[in-house]
Amino acid sequence: MASDLSAEGVPSVAYHAGLDDARRNQVQRLWIDDKVRVVCATIAFGMGIDKPDVRFVMHHSLPKSVEGYYQESGRAGRDGRPAVCILFYNYGDMHRIRRMVEQDVSNPAARQTHLTNLWHVVNFCENRTDCRRAQVLHYFGENFDREFCRRNPHASCDNCSSRGRWVTRDVTDAARDLVRCVQGFNGTNVTLNHIVDIFRGAAIKKIIEMGHNKLPLYGKGKGYSRMDAERLARKLVLDGFLKEVSTINHLDMAISHVRVGNRAPELVQGNAKISLAVEKESKASESSVAVQELPADAEMDKLTESCHNELVEMVKSLAREKNTFYGNLIHMEALRGLAKALPMTTDAMLQVPHVTRAVVDKYGAQLLDIIERHAAEKIVLEAEREAQGSSSNSNELVQQPPSAFMERAAARGKRPAGGGAGHAAPAKRMKKFFRRKGRKNGTFCSSETYEKVFQEEGPKKRDIIQTNNKADEICDAVCNRTSRSTAHAQA
Q1: Mean of the pLDDT values across residues 176-196?
Q2: What is the pTM of this model?
Q3: Domain range list for the chain
Q4: Which residues does the UniProt record annotate as the domain HRDC (predicted)?
């Protein structure tokens, strides 16, 4: 796997029990220091290592238990940021694991426990409607409100993200037909896939040669997609109405054949109901597009993320110098809290959870250097928002024309590019504003300092900041001042 990924341009290394201790330690060190971003490993990898910034955990094979999956996938996103967990699933994986479990005859009780665990995992994978988080937490006796997924589409599980694609139907009649068909074979070796082919009316050579196209079940499931028909048959196995047994063929290969399950009489006699979530038909009238809710303030979120990334990179650089993991220097939640709060003083930093006096004494100056730059940008964004809010109306339907529309125009035609007669050029206008501002408010900053601030912030934001009188606040942030004079504060 690692070599295949590397060949496709994704540098990867392998980690497994066959490596010597030195190589395993080397792989772990490379991974912790972010010198290797992808590790293809057995499930033991990462145990006892608190690496909080794991963004992806992918299972190439089916886990043997929900407990195992919970622990293994739980290594992602420990820093509180979004992470992705992907499980590659094929129903055939269940047969492989089941065969391995059944070969162990030394401990019948343990074997039964392993089979039960396997059943829970397969049931989890086959479920296409219930929230993944809710399923896992319910397994451990906890409750989870799936509305969290609806309210946070950026962190939704696959089932909650595709709720519009599925509709639950009563499939009792179809399920009963499938069970009766298996009963009719009376122990003859047929696979579950063969039953599905009969159900859907597949005109394949094997079915026709065996005369199974004349069975009552043949073609009754023509309206089912292949995927839904297979899922129905698997559900009957998981619910105990059918069962699969493994036999060894002449090639010494394990083949699973279907038999009637212990609960079959309940269904045949009409004492059980079966429902299944099936995919909606792909009609335009039934198509569903998931509404992606944008963050309340995307720009602020982007600013917070940028600050957090810079803080993390700074701490990682320090950790590399000290030959240690960066999480040992500063708690990851502390960095996240600093990026959100953007404290401008050391005392304010200490109010952020997980920020200790030792952290402030050792790294406070370096942290503040990053925080102050983003705090200045935050003030600009707030000024922008304030200006837009005061000059615009959210309603498109305006009852009265704006006053400016009713006034007589001062001049007709296009304004010259430089500002036109009676309009100072933007650069000159800003210089006048700076000088006037400095004399009026008695600030410690000269007009040259203000000009430097706005050179850093960009000319496109000057008018907005001038309108909202935010120049002093930005100057404070850039100049690393934590207090103002009385005259400055009054202004």
Answers
A1: 91
A2: 0.60
A3: 2-163, 169-281, 298-389+424-490
A4: 301-381
